Amino acid sequence: MDFTKKDARGAAETAQFCPLRWPETGKPIMDGDKPVGAMVLGASARTVQAALKADQRAKLQASNGKEDEARALEDIQADLVKSAARLTTGFVGVQRGDREATADDAEWFYDLNMFSTASLLAPDKRKWQNLSFAQQVLAFSNDAANYLGND
Q: What is the pTM of this model?
């Protein structure tokens, strides 16, 4: 069996369309008859992991070796937003005012709604309800099936 065709980390380097849902209802976001979403790299992509590692190093250097103080929910939100932005190469059907949103708008977009602590403590049986846009993108990017099938 040729395993070069099963390079999951290599496949994760190609962005895939992640349809977004309204966090309040879990229903798909539509622009007319077209789904709205983000183009997202897989979390296992080597370039993504290198970027996240660099972010962590920068954060440690900025703290000057001090132990991390107590974290507020806003700190967790900021980390989720930054991680989701690292995965995003673009958007489909998302506008920022009168222009199409780009990857440069990712942090703005993912910070439009707060992550759901309820979804972390007691995941909802309605899979996508109560997940912020950042949580949706992170969940999508961590699902290897979105990047490499098992045929």
A: 0.86
